[in-house]
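> call design_seq(struct)
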């Protein structure tokens, strides 16, 4: 009986390792450009001359950037009630790509001047804070326990985007009490 469990456990671990060993090239082929860039940079940190990682990074970075910027433009023209919140997340992903490439000398050779979007992020955070604050007010005005819970998390998000936004600290306490 113990041997059967050892066999199952060994097979499980083997499958787990194989599943976690997806390559940047595979992510690129699947259209997951962001992950392809991240995996390629990680691979270049451990093996700076890795030709597959270099090629994948060359292809994936412009595509990841283009997809994120298109997503941001689409969000701005949409009726999504949390378009600025989503925009902040998209800018954070773009800035994360920038930081990852900056921390890898081999990746910097492949992408010598990655773009950063910190200058756009602050305005987006301010708009996202307002968006979350307004959603919190709306939820709080329902005068229900569920509404108060939603309001609490909206107010926390607003404070996370813009520390001390308006009277958000009082609203957090008010929602918690409700």
């Amino acid at each position: 009986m113990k041997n059967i469990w050892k066999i199952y456990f060994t097979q499980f671990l083997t499958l787990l390792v194989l599943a976690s060993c997806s390559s940047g090239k595979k992510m690129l082929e699947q259209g997951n450009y962001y992950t392809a860039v991240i995996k390629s940079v990680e691979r270049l940190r451990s093996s700076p001359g890795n030709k597959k990682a270099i090629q994948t990074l060359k292809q994936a970075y412009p595509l990841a950037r283009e997809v994120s910027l298109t997503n941001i433009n689409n969000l701005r023209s949409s009726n999504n009630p949390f378009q600025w919140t989503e925009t902040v997340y998209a800018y954070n992903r773009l800035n994360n790509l920038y930081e990852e490439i900056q921390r890898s000398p081999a990746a910097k050779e492949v992408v010598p001047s990655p773009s950063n979007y910190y200058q756009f992020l602050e305005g987006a955070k301010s708009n996202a804070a307002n968006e979350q604050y307004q959603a919190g007010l709306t939820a709080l005005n329902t005068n229900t326990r569920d509404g108060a819970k939603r309001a609490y998390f909206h107010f926390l998000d607003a404070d996370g985007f813009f520390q001390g936004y308006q009277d958000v600290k009082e609203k957090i306490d008010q929602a918690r009490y409700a």
